[in-house]
Amino acid sequence: MPQKKISIRIDGELISALEGQTILQAAKANGKYIPTLCDLDGLTSVGACRICLVEVSGSERLFPACTTPIQEGMSVTTNSPKLTRYRRISVELLLIERNHVCAVCVSNGHCELQTMASALGIGTVGLAYNFPKLSIDMSHPRFVLDHNRCILCTRCVRVCAELEGAHMWELTSRGIHARIVSEMNEQWGKATSCTSCGKCVHACPTGALAEKGWAVEEMVKKIDAVTSLVHRRGAQV
Amino acid sequence: MPTPSLGSIPTDEQVFIDKLIAIRRGRPGALLGVLEATQERNRYKYLPLETLRYVAAKMEMPLARIYSVATFYALFNLQPQGENTICICRGTACHTRGSRNLLQGARLELGLGLDGGESDGNEADKLLLTTADQQFTVRTVACFGQCAMAPVVEVNHRICGHATERTLQREIETIRAGE
Ligand code: SF4
Ligand code: FES
Ligand code: FES
Question: In this complex, do B72 and A176 lie within 8 Å of one another by their Cβ atoms?
């Protein structure tokens, strides 16, 4: 069934989009940029990071572009001082929650969190750091998980469940205690449902999931390999 | 999908769980109902990992999914609970009315010591301690929704408002005397 076309405005420009698309999808299809962290092309959107917040005329509230469906006549603003302020707060909260020490990170220079922070002009963080003491799971022969660098975006969870079909990762607990967990808190290397495909590693925006054997700055994620796989398989999410 | 490791949990529990699943199959939220009833049936009111594994296999769900649900809700316990439960509210209203002292008092009274948990305030909703003789479990919640009666303590599912160290001590004595 052909999808109905509807018109919306993004930053003043009139565009036509398909009913059922999210603001983010409509924007992308029309070459408009909205910053994102937890969203990954081809996976379900969960609205976890709040970086993609946009303004919608007629509402005081801000809306996450990745989970908000478009509506006829909607007028969306993707950039404003207010949005920058809120996006900055979101990134700062991510930075203080765990131990993001770029200087000693395998992903230094190739990290989406770091890139986002500098794009938003975050030099110093005004909030107190949490400095949690979190574990590192080295049990897998090829990969490593460092909770200290995780931003709980759940890209690993979704890529494993939706693309690989293994569903080895999940979130456990909630709030400040939330963690990524393999199976029932099994060590990663002992998890029988892990296929060692490495999709989670390459979908991870930070150095939280990495291949073993790389030194500082050496882990470059092949994010395109993951997203192009989605398109080749024609996955519709 | 995990394969059911049959024989890992008692047969009567298997039958019980199989029935629960059969009744609820296909309904939204089926897992929650199954887990709740299974925990209620357990002598120590908890969900052992082997049980979760069995449920996962029978409901054809990933282990990670079940574990995630079981650890998200405060209702589910993954560790054995004592015969009696003392639940102390560490929400804001109760905190300002001295619930930390109540908690520490209860821990000392029951010989649970003061080490571990609640070190930085972050653990407020997570503390769970059981005495070695399995008689008492002390746990915390983040608000009972009874703030007007702060500080609030729940003793074996009975709410006691305006609790003091003295009243809490008496509750414990009553339970001990009744054993
Ligand atoms: S491990 Fe990486 S992909 Fe997974 S939730 Fe953490 S930051 Fe996201
Ligand atoms: S990209 Fe929309 S909330 Fe993360
Ligand atoms: S804070 Fe204790 S009942 Fe609300």
Answer: no
